Amino acid sequence: MSVAPAKTITYRDALREAIREALLADERVFLMGEDVGAYGGCFGVSKGLLDEFGPERIRDTPLSESAFVGAGIGAAMGGMRPIVEVMTVNFCLLALDQIMNNAATIGHMSGGQFQIPLVIRMTTGAGRQVAAQHSHSLEGWLAHIPGLKLLAPATLADARLMLRPALADANPVLIFEHGSLYNLEGELPADPAGVDIERAAIKRPGTDVTLIAYGGTLPTALAAAEELAADGIDAEVIDLRVLRPLDDRTVIGSVARTHRAVIVDEGWRSGSLAAEVSARIMEQAFYELDAPVARVCSAEVPMPYPRHLEQAALPQPATVVEAARRMIGTAPDE
Amino acid sequence: MSAAAPIEREHGLHLLREMLRVRRFEEKCVELYSAAKIRGFMHLYIGEEAVAVGAMQALGADDAIVATYREHGHALVRGVSAGSIMAEMYGKVEGCARGRGGSMHLFDAASRFYGGNAIVGGGLPLAVGLALADKLQGRQRVTACFFGDGAVAEGEFHECMNLAALWSLPVLFLCENNVYAMGTRIDRYESETDLALKAASYEMTAWAVDGMDVLAVEEAARRAVAEVRDGSRPVFLELQTYRFRAHSMYDPDLYRTKEEIERHKQQDPIPALIDRLRSEELLSDEDVEELERAIAEEIDQAVAFADAGTLEPVEDLERFVYWEGAPA
């Protein structure tokens, strides 16, 4: 346990401290991406790092997602430990060839001759009225790909601490930072202990229903759990944290206790990560269930700009509460 | 045939041997494909051998190679054994990628051979990254990146030319212009068919070379590698070549005339080098016979090695998707 006093920190600052720590710890680490240097990062994550570490290690790139993501792969194969920032998950589609056909594939296809110890960070998610080309949650899509590891830090501790094990991993690791979390503020120990990048975390223990969330939907699920508690429904909340490989054990263990599950996923419902988690619960805990698994996902539309439509498209605490109540049989209208 | 510099007998024989190795190896591959020993897509380099053979002369053991799916020749000339390439094409675990990749995905870490990349243009970012790693670690190495003319139409080409030039990265871009992107002739898919001119617009040294002349390719590659290594900046070579066979084993070759192919066969780099060496009295009939005999033996051994190879146990299917622990 840490003895240093806790300090107040934002999610954004926690990410920056993690990158800074990595740059100080290992000279093979460098950061590259669009506007990570002089601008300080599109979301301010890398502010100040150019001054401290210089342009060789904090590299502003052209708007060439495929080239600089692929260059990250090549640099990792060449002995470096790159951190590549892609501005948003929507933009990573321009680098999907490199992510899928090279980063995820070369290790296996080469018969195990090459490792790609690469970290790619990207912003994901909606809620900021930036419309249909900057707002999507495509984690589920990317989680389809064997060979990748996917992380979704939803807490200050994970924002601060997931990068270290991600860089120490021999596999390509994608880290999804939800845009609505950057200003999240709270206390962290000044010298925090490490975290794993293998297990889901139970953020709120409960007995009646399991709410399964990740990234931007963790606050939604926690808010729903509070509301349910006021009605006497004791919800357990799981933060998946690691989206691939999924930690089935924590999820199944929880569902085996609560006998009910609601999955809260900002991705589109069809073919979503929520669909995968649901299927695993069916496969591994079907006879534990007292009710069909429920999913609260985003509406299947390109994310609209006006606030009321955007909010209508996104999972809301009230929708989660309604889904949980319905499966427990206390929905107000039933 | 470039006539300027004198040629030494041993070096001339070496170039001839390497081109013949690639030619005979691939002719054997055609047989084995017909016999269903080799399956999947297979793309032949026949006609283009002078490019890989000439360019590879300029590279050292520490340099890296990134190639395409038409890479049997590059792997052979780089020093990947004929047996391990053939075993790879047989899908055997003794193959240079454990049989996982096949014809299009030859890999060999020991000789820094980074594939075998079958997405057109997809190897260029890897090459840029390998060169970036060298630059950041202060190593004077060159990454040689082979790709076809078709790749020039891809966005990844332009992104990588820009990035390599902008960051002064030691990449040798080797564009094998065989005039066709699969079945589409270059003047039907490029608004500007002078590829060296395109590359030059990214502020890098670029020029076109007769890719049917192994001596010209070698000379150009040596000059280019010197600039890349000493100047730590990219250079682009357009190697003008021609493939004598169809795009792949599936291609009925309907998009060009037999006359066109025959015309290009008049520039076959192998007879051209033989003629040159003979004209300088550096090569006898016995020399050619001896080369052919040794190559036939090497290929027979490669086929025997592949035939005797074993299949990867199905239990290993998921091996190397993920690694446990820290990077090696």
Outline:
The complex is a heterodimer of chains A (334) and B (328). Chain A has 334 residues and is an alpha/beta fold. Chain A has helices spanning 11-25, 49-53, 65-77, 96-103, 106-109, 139-142, 156-161, 163-167, 217-230, 248-258, 273-285, 307-313, 317-328, and strands at residues 6-10, 29-33, 58-60, 81-88, 119-124, 149-151, 173-178, 185-189, 201-204, 209-213, 235-239, 242-244, 261-268, 294-298.
Descriptive overview:
The complex is a heterodimer of chains A (334) and B (328). Chain A is α/β, with parallel strands linked by helices and 334 residues long. Chain A folds into 2 domains: 6-189, Rossmann fold (3-Layer(aba) Sandwich), CATH 3.40.50; 201-328, 3-Layer(aba) Sandwich (Rossmann fold), CATH 3.40.50.920. Chain A has helices spanning 11-25, 49-53, 65-77, 96-103, 106-109, 139-142, 156-161, 163-167, 217-230, 248-258, 273-285, 307-313, 317-328, and strands at residues 6-10, 29-33, 58-60, 81-88, 119-124, 149-151, 173-178, 185-189, 201-204, 209-213, 235-239, 242-244, 261-268, 294-298. Chain A has a 7-stranded mixed β-sheet, with helices on both faces. In chain A, helix 9 (217-230) crosses helix 13 (317-328) and helix 10 (248-258) crosses helix 11. The longest helix of chain A is centred in the first third of the chain and has 15 residues, at 11-25. Chain B has 328 residues and is α/β, with parallel strands linked by helices. Chain B has a single domain (9-309), classed as Rossmann fold. In chain B, strands 2-1-3-4-8-7 form a 6-stranded parallel β-sheet, sandwiched between helices. In chain B, 43% of the residues lie in helices and 12% in strands. At the A-B interface, helix 3, helix 4 and helix 5 of A face strand 2, helix 5 and helix 6 of B.
| Strand-pairing-aware structural class of chain B | alpha/beta
Q: Going across the major beta sheet of chain A, what is the strand order? A: 3-2-4-5-7-6-12
**Count of the separate structural domains of chain B:** 1
Alpha-carbon distance between the termini of chain B? Answer: 47 Å
CATH architectural type of chain B:
3-Layer(aba) Sandwich
Unreliable runs of chain A: none
Q: What's the average pLDDT of chain A? A: 96
- The number of helical segments of chain A is 13
Mean pLDDT of chain B: 96
Number of helices of chain B: 11
Poorly predicted tracts of residues of chain B: none
- Give the total of beta strands of chain A: 14
Shape category of chain A: globular
Beta-sheet strand percentage of chain B?
5-15%
